[in-house]
Every structure is written in structure tokens, then in C-alpha cells.
Amino acid sequence: MSARLRLQVMMFLQYFIWGSWAVTLGTYLGTTLKFEGAQIGLIYGTTAVAAIISPFFVGMIADRLFPTEKIIALLHLLGAGLLWYVSTLSTFGTMYVGMLAYSLCYMPTLALTNSISMSNLQDPSAQFGGVRVLGTIGWIAVGLLLGYLAVDDTATPIRIAAIASLVLAGYALLLPHTPPPAKGQALTARDVLGLDALALLKDRSFTVFIIGSFLLCIPLQFYYAFANLFLNEVGVASAAGKMTLGQMSEVFFMVFIGVLLRKYGIKTILLVAMLAWAARYFLFAYGDAGAGMWMLYGGLLLHGICYDFFFVSGQIYVDQQAGPKIRGAAQGFIALVTLGLGNFVGSWASGRIVDHHALPDGGHDWTAIWQIPAVGALVIFVLFAVLFKPRVAKT
């Protein structure tokens, strides 16, 4: 196998694992284990806690002591055991600790799979997209599998993720040998947290971008934590399978994001993303599994715009503003703000709001629930439209 093909298989498995449990976990916790919305939100928030902590691990261990492929293998081996253990748990306390331990193993591998790819491609800027897209295809594949098996409210998806994690642990040893890139170099907290990127906050528009990104990640978590539970509660058949429409649209829009950015600029693209999040939630609020099913399909298909126009274009904007000297620090900083702090607050807030709108029969007032993040996204849209005035990117 060529290095590129080996990396593509790695990406497929990496996101196959995440898609196995992340989509349906809320349904399993809420329907089968009878967890409260706040508890479900906190469990989804374990990935955010791990996203805050994992840069320390990646910086201290993976970049300085051991080859990347061996770290990936070890983390996925530990993750496989933890996931299988989590699938046997039924109380919030044990489930939270188990998922936090697992997230601390999994989240660093997102950065590590990216870095090992960049290190072993001849032209990363041109070839990485063709490698990373296999991750989205892996997410789609497991979603279709779960939809076919109809196991959204069981522990089966977690066990499928555990098995896939074990497979990747073994497969990682076949990846190209990648020695630690920063072996022997000193490590500071400033490097790990990307604090050199704080200099960019002198530009008011960059500060607005950071604050807007943090705020938008709060309503975003409503979808990631509760969309599958919502679809199952309103009677959508094969909910996990239908949710893969979002990843399919993601692949489509990924192809055009570069062209659209050059034509319309970062502000327009980010504003469209914010409007798309609001539109998605309004469609969810008023759609149903009958005559309003088209609205649910529309909400799912908007995922490509929601994700690509916000996350991918945002990463490109940060890269342009930072320049080569502090590029790594800037990307680490935006990840800390969004995947870490923003997602944690969003997970906590979404869980509280879902609990507040619980119904006596065990269901939820989803119309009221989805209106809240929809309005939140609109408010952020207005503030962003008024305050965000990006300067010309560095060349």
C-alpha cells in the first residue's frame, strides 16, 4: 500500500469510530438509561474537556518522545477497552468517568492523524483534502450501518466503536514511521496553549471572530448532542442512517469551499454559516415525521453549509491572519476556544434547556427547544454582521 492509501484507510477508521457512538449516544442515554438532558449534555461535554487537556499530551508526549504511529496505536488500544467497558455501564457517574477517560484517549488522535498525514504526503496542501475526506466517508458508512441495524437505543453502537478502535490500534502500526518532530526541544505552556496567537487579538475583527466562534459553538451543541434523540422521539425511521445526509452534503460543499471563499470573502461565508444554523433549527422546530418530513431532511442537508462554511472557512481565515510564524499556535488557540470552551458550555446549556422542556410522558417539547438555538444563532449573526470587518489577509 502506498503511504497515501494507508493514510486514507486510517482516516476512514478514525471517523468511523467517532461516528459509531457520537450520533446515537444521546438516544441510548435518554431512552434506555433514562438520563436527564443535563446529564446527556455533560457526557457529550467530555470531548470538550478532553479537547482542552489533550494539547498538553500531544505536546509533551507525541511531539517529543515517541513515533506518532505508536502513540495512535496505544491510544486506540486503550480507547477500545474503555469503550467496551462504557457499554456495560448504566449510571451517570460511572458513565461520565468512563466517557471522560475515553475522550482523553480519542481527542488527541484527531490532531495526531492530521499531523502524521501532513508529515507523509509529498504535497500536503494539495493532497490532504483527498485523505481527510475518507474520514467523512467513514462517518457516513457507520451511520448507514447503524440505520440498517436499527440499534440507536442500544449499547451496540458503542461496542461497534470499540471493535473499530481495536482494529485501528493494530492497523496504526502499519502506518509510515513518523519520528517525534520536536524531540529534544523545550516545552512551555505558551507553546501548548497557542498563547503566541494572543497577539492577533490586537486586531478588533479577529477578536470579534474569536468571540463569535465561541458563542456560535454553544447553539451548535444542541445538534450534536440531541438531534438523534429528537429524530427518534418524533418517529423518524432509521434516524442514524438519515443523519448521514449531513455528511454527504459536507463532502459536496468541501469541494467548493475554496472557490466560494475567494469569490465572496470570509465574512459572507461565515454569515451564511450562521444563517444556516438558524434555518436548520427552525426547520427542526416545525418539521415532523409526516407531512413535515421535508423540513427535517432540509435541516439535515444544511449540515454541509453549517460545518464547512463555519469550521473549515474559519480555520482558513485563522491561517491567513496568523502567517507562517505563529500558524500552529493560532490553530491551537482557535481549537481551544471552539472545540474546548465553546463545546463545553454548549453541552451544559443544551442539556439544561432540554430538561426544562421535558414532558410528563417522557418526551420533550422539541419545537420550543429548537427555537432557542435558532434565535441564538440569529443574534450572533446580527452582531457578527455589524462588528466583523476583516482586514486584508497576509500574503
Would you give an account of this structure?
Helix 12 runs antiparallel to helix 14 and helix 14 packs antiparallel against helix 15. The longest helix is centred in the middle third of the chain and has 30 residues. This protein is mainly alpha-helical and about 400 residues long. It is globular and about 60 Å long.
Q: What is the overall pLDDT average? A: 88
The number of strands is 0
Tally of contiguous helical segments: 16
N-to-C CA distance: 37 Å
How much of the sequence is in beta strands?
under 5%
Task: Give the topology.
Blueprint: H1 3-22, H2 25-32, H3 37-44, H4 46-62, H5 68-86, H6 92-120, H7 124-149, H8 156-171, H9 189-193, H10 204-233, H11 239-264, H12 266-286, H13 293-301, H14 303-322, H15 327-356, H16 366-387
Please tag this protein with its features.
0% strand, Growth Hormone, Chain: A, 2 domains
Question: Brief description of this entry?
Answer:
The chain has 395 residues and is mainly α. Helix content is 77%, strand content 0%.
